[in-house]
Amino acid sequence: MTTEEKYVAAAYLVVLLVILIYVVIMAAKLTRLGRDVSELTELAREKKRTAEEGTAEQPVKPAPKQVKVG
Fold this sequence. Notes:
- By secondary structure, the protein is mostly helical.
- It is built from 1 helix and no strands.
């Protein structure tokens, strides 16, 4: 194997490693995002369930408006 071939092989290896690292990072982010979406969905369902139970007994008061100061 010539020196040029070694450099080309090394360049391909570096590119392959960069792509592999990118894919691993994106997979981790996708997993975390999926977990967050599941958690938010469950919180929304719980809030809806609580609101439906509240309407049977008493109306649920809307949350107060938040005002930014500064």
